[in-house]
């Protein structure tokens, strides 16, 4: 989890400490293309891809730890 948190923090920092959820997802997808494939290298097509759920789980953990500003507008991930 710590590696994932560090990756998300770097992505948000690269946008000046605040970025929309979609931008964070797109940037992670760009830097870690293997994250968008399934265990056997097949694209995940149905529903919300597992990697997006994992990134959102990292966000929730960062909020619990106090790393993200929960008073930021809806959909904006802002570092404290």
Counted by DSSP, the helix tally is 3
Strand portion: 5-15%
Uncertain runs are none
What distance lies between the first and last C-alpha atoms, to the nearest angstrom?
Answer: 19 Å
Fraction of helical residues: 40-55%
Taking all residues together, what is the mean pLDDT? 84
SSE pattern: HEHHE
Sheet bearing the most strands, described? 2 strands, antiparallel
Overall number of strands:
2
Estimated structural class: mainly alpha
Strand order of the largest sheet: 1-2
Total domain units: 1
Q: What's the alpha carbon Rg, rounded to whole Å? A: 13 Å
Dominant shape: globular
Secondary-structure topology with pairs:
Layout: H1 2-13, E1 18-20, H2 21-31, H3 50-65, E2 76-78
Antiparallel strand pairs: 1-2
């Amino acid at each position: 989890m710590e590696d994932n948190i560090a990756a998300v923090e770097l992505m948000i920092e690269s946008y000046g400490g605040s970025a929309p959820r979609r931008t964070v997802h797109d940037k992670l997808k760009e830097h870690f293309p293997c994250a968008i494939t399934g265990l056997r290298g097949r694209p995940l097509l149905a529903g919300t891809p597992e990697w997006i759920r994992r990134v959102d789980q990292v966000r929730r953990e960062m909020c619990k730890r106090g790393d993200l500003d929960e008073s930021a507008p809806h959909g904006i991930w802002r570092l404290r």
